[in-house]
Amino acid sequence: MPVKNRFAELLPEITAWRRDFHENPELLYEVHRTAAKVAGLLREFGCDEVVEGIGQTGVVGVIRGRSDTAGRVVGLRADMDALPIVEQTGAAHASKVPGKMHACGHDGHTAMLLGAAKYLAETRNFDGTAVVIFQPAEEGGGGGKAMVDDGMMERWGIQEVYGMHNMPGFPVGSFAIRPGPMMAATDQFDIVVTGKGGHAAKPHDCIDTTLVASHIVVAMQQIASRNVDPLKQVVVSICTFRTESEAYNVIPQTVVLRGTVRSLDPGVRDLAEARVKAVAEGIAAAHGATVGISYIRGYPVTMNTPENTDYAVAVAQAVSGQVDTAVAPMMGGEDFSYMLNARPGAYIFLGNGDSAMVHHPAYDFDDNAIPFGSSWYAGMVESRMPAA
Q1: pLDDT tens digits for range 203-226
Q2: Which residue in 14, 282, 376, 381 has a CA-CA distance of 20 to 30 Å to 92?
Q3: For the whole model, what pTM was predicted?
Q4: Exactly one of 23, 26, 81, 335 is catalytic; which is it?
Q5: Where is the Peptidase M20 dimerisation domain (predicted)?
Q6: Which domains does the chain have, with CATH numbers?
Q7: Counting beta carbons within 10 angstroms of the beta carbon of residue 321, is it exposed (0 to 12), middle (13 to 18) or buried (19 or more)?
């Protein structure tokens, strides 16, 4: 594939961008330095339009092909934000910002899409318009939703959209994708159990919130095992159990439980929410306690359109030859889902080799993956909008 050779030539330059982003991580929407550098580079490349401040701190670049006979517009997305983690890689390009690091490879995603943008602006060997999307706040901030809500799709007439994420454990330069659900919906909840506190030596005078909360924790596991179709996936995890007292001899008045629900099907998502509430309320009532429940829906399911998945597979095979087209869905969340809710498209994994897992302090993006990722981004534009 001719794109591949150009990205081998550009590898030192793209690697330098990536390591600069890695040294200077920023969180959520506070990606001001990163966004400014991205916008500056897009202007240097000669993009036809560069707009900052979409979805607060997102950046959009527009590259028009040599012709535009059909009015086609394809969007390509990368995320820019880092994580609040203390880096332990020992790399020469390690984070210079205490308590922050690019532990998920968004530095690599941004650099690869910049490389693709430079190539597309140089060659313009396509019929239509490419829109490169640099998103803030993927790590829990919903930056993808913010950009969609800001009218990005309508403003630039984006018709289909594609995203990519590196994945440790897959060979460098390999790809993995599936049609349908790729990553899970991510919801969270708080349950406040209120009873009657008192002395631990006189439990008969109390309504023991630790006992009630413990029953709730155990019973929540029946949602996956007894309420949901065994052929469908759901994860219900209670991750925090906090009482108002740390004393050895006090039955606390309240206990707070916090947890998450992950699902791949909208019907299962609705069922799980209903069961979390019903289980907590029923057990509390049976013990004479009360509960207050706050249930917050997070990112929706990342759902690949089957037709667009086929397009993504074809380009990946041309770039790499190593493509798993039936990778198992992952129960992590991804706010590219909001863009896929707005437009058809697909989300693909790119192998990062035998590295630490994402969100680990020893993780680092493998720069050897750059030519493959940049080639795929550029290849999606050229294949979906072939030159007239």
Answers
A1: 999 999 999 999 999 999 999 999
A2: 376
A3: 0.94
A4: 81
A5: 189-281
A6: 5-183+301-384 (3.40.630.10), 185-299 (3.30.70.360)
A7: exposed
